[in-house]
Amino acid sequence: MSRIALVVGSTGIVGQTLATRLVAEGWTVHGLARRPRHDMAGVLPIAADLLDLNNLKLALKDLTPTHVFFCSWLRQPTEEENCRVNSAMVRNVFEALPAPERLEHAALTTGMKHYLGPFESYASGEPPQTPFREDMPRLPLANFYYDQEDVLFAAAEKYGFSWSVHRPHTIIGYAVGNAMNMGSTLAVYATICRETGRPFVFPGSPVQWDSLTDLTDARQLARQLLWASTSESGWNEAFNVVNGDVFRWKWLWPRLAAWFGLEAAPYPGHATDLEEILSQDGDLWAQIAEKYGLTESRIDHLVSAWHTDADLGRPVECVTDMSKSRLAGFDGWQYTPDSFFDLFERLRAEKLIP
After folding, report:
1. Catalytic residue among 113, 115, 174, 189
2. Which of 28, 224, 269, 303 has its CA 20 to 30 A from that of 69?
3. Burial code of 105-117, b = ≥16 C-beta within 10 A, e = fewer?
């Protein structure tokens, strides 16, 4: 049976990886973004602003997808605005589609802030006991993930399609200009340390340095999105999704350093403000780009140090349980060091790092 996907946010880490996977599986794939890429083989680009309903209706007027995948969000100055804007983006897609009743499935990607709270009150108060499990109650805080879920649930009930919600930990994968991109941020940081002789210091908290944690490869997330959207056991459920292994940053950090030919600096015992450091390195990165003929000389198009600081600076342990999807039949797995090394290889191949 022909499957037609609308990937909302097709230029981000999740959207690009998912769209590529769906094309490889034989789907017809439409990639929606404000500035869609036109060089993704097999992906049909759609340019539209999710907050402009009339524009969105015009862009989608001839499209009748069987599946919609929401892989997009817009950061706002407050969580109240995050809730308003990001729930409207989901709602507008359903309103703009000419025949939403013909949808078979809609999948929403959210994340660990479901358990840890929004950025303005991130990991504050009494943290939930790890590992995070899908049946944990919502926190008594405003959270745009909750608002997006509620829009999804209401649309599914109204139009009669199945849904799934996917909650990754920090996502490692390829994208340029992404708002939350730890992998590329650390690649730029390591490159600068190698070029300048600065110490390659882990910038996170003592808890993150010492405790067990996990991450999510974008390819692992794409596998689960595909599985849940096409397997009845994945319908109408929320699922955590991580690589399936656990590690401590004190073990992984020297391995990341070695890939760049560096020695990891001794951990100083406290968090370091990576955003403050890299915010002063714009001219330096432009010089590195010129020296090596790199394709992107603007450091702010490659790094999102604020997000890396938030994730690595958490004062709480973060371990995620994936039993629910395992029991339902999902068997994807990914070795975390290779998530980074594969990304670094691609960044180097595309001349984004030397």
Report:
1. 113
2. 303
3. bbbbbbbbbbbbb
Q: pTM value? A: 0.96
Q: How many CB atoms lie within 10 A of CB 133?
A: 15
What is the torsion angle, in degrees rounded to the nearest 10, for the CA atoms of residue 100, residue 106, residue 109 and residue 113?
Answer: 80
Q: Which of 57, 122, 145, 292 is catalytic?
A: 145
Phi-psi region of 284 (alpha: psi -120 to 50; beta: other; left: phi over 0): alpha
- Tens of pLDDT, residue by residue over 87-142, are 999 999 999 999 999 999 999 999 999 999 887 766 566 777 899 999 999 999 99
Q: Are strands 4-8 and 67-70 parallel, antiparallel or unpaired?
A: parallel
Told to judge if 115 belongs to the known catalytic residues of this protein, a careful annotator would answer no
CB 44 within 8 A of CB 30: yes
The pLDDT-based confidence of 273 (bands split at 50, 70, 90) is very high
Provide the Cα torsion 30, 184, 280, 354; round to 10°.
Answer: -110
* Closest alpha carbon to 165 in 146, 149, 141, 151: 149
DSSP conformation letters of 29-80: EEEEESS--S-STTEEEEE--TT-HHHHHHHTTT---SEEEE------SSHH
